[in-house]
Amino acid sequence: GESADHHGCGQIHSFCCLYYPGLLFQGTGIAVGYTGASLLTSYVAYLSPWMPAWLWVAVGMILMLGVGITATSTVGAIATLAPKPRAFKICLSLLLLMVVTEIVATTIVYQKQHALSQALGDFMGESMERTQADYGEKESDTQLWDEIQMEMNCCGTISYKDWFTTTFGNGTDVPDSCCLMVEPGCGKDIANVVDPEDEVITEGCFPTVLHAIGLDYHTLSRGVWLPVCAMHVALMVLLIATSMFLQESYTAGNLRIYSVSAVLPATTHKYQALDNTF
């Protein structure tokens, strides 16, 4: 009995070794969620009229993956302290599924990044031209363009001259949000100004926004996403190897206890029956 209790305590202590990798998984899950949230707030939601539906789906999946990894690893870490081996195995299986999905998706995006970039650019260009034509007529498009042009320091889709062909531009004007010094009427008659770069921003919003997205993509992928993926692979290998070792140790321990109990002498009567023959 004492040997079995000692063995059980040892198993609990050893099983807790899985707790700390679980904590690391929580941190990496938060990093994945941060990546999705950063893309959502910086571009997808911010430039929603110009963003394709598949990008919304992709960012939503990243957020769900981050939440899933964080929640599952938290439950798994708690299961190691309980200890609840069966619950931990379920969490480990879910984490393995999410990590495999993450790696496969990362590989596909890496292989298709140029095609995805082209598709994003084509959709954005068409959307920007369409909303630019509605400037001054639709309040939502007007507010969007004014906000983007002032914050991103750009003007028009490809260049400031794009405004001249719109109904609002009337051949000569640009929105006041294009001006270097924004004030009412500052965008009037820009087509006749000798040095327009002294009055308005001449670079278009399409190349500016695409360049910003590209920079953030490389920063997040190299600084956050790829290191997190590598850490996930290492942690999964560690968790699986440790859990298999503990399972084998637990099975071997049970076998030893069973073997010892099998060779112990059977309980005998303290007193033997007296022979009745005299």
Automatic annotation (TrEMBL):
One of its GO terms (cellular component) is plasma membrane. Its main location: membrane. The keyword ATP-binding does not apply. Gene3D superfamilies: Tetraspanin (1.10.1450.10). Keywords: Membrane, Transmembrane, Transmembrane helix. InterPro entries: Tetraspanin/Peripherin (IPR018499), Tetraspanin_EC2_sf (IPR008952). It is found in: Membrane. This is Tetraspanin. It comes from Cherax quadricarinatus.
